[in-house]
Sequence to fold (214 residues):
Amino acid sequence: MQKFRGAVARLIVSVFCLALLISAAQSQTRRKSTVKRSAARSALSIPRGTEMKIRLENEIDTKESKDGDRFTATVLTPSRYADATIEGHIAKIDKSGKLSGKTELALSFDRIRLKNGESAVIGAQVVKVYGEDSAKEVDEEGNVKSGSKGKTTAIRTGGGAALGAIIGGIAGGGKGAAIGAAVGAAAGAGSTYIQGSNKVKLESGTEILIKTTR
Fold:
């Protein structure tokens, strides 16, 4: 009986040791798999100079937004990165306080994440904004600029003066034309405060062309 008990005890110890060995082997396998996945993610690299067409998923409005605000965008092209998510933030909003000034918007692109889970740090700058009237131009550094309020004022003032002169001329000859021109100019200048704008507003769904810089 004593020998039987001893054999059972040795068997229990053997089974316990075997279970420990199996558990250790499984843990090591899981660690190796995690390392491989991490290596695969860190291996993702976007060639410098790659152009991507992206679609904004958030609205960016220089009147309401502020430096540091986060945004996301979805990659449309090229097909290799299609449906990837790009995360970024507003790097700078430069609002001019002058009537004739322009507002500048600088976007920073931070990370790209592919559909398969791979991700990488990304650097890029804006090349072009599609279909947004408020984004009049993009400079060489990727800053998105609004139109000039001063230019809008000059155009509207000239148009108002011409219209006023015509109406005044019809109403009272030469003297009426002079009065009408002055009234028309004042009306034209005043209209810019309502209709003019030197802000940049990028609606959700706006398509933008960017180019990677690193």
Summary: The CA atoms of residues 35 and 41 lie 10 Å apart.
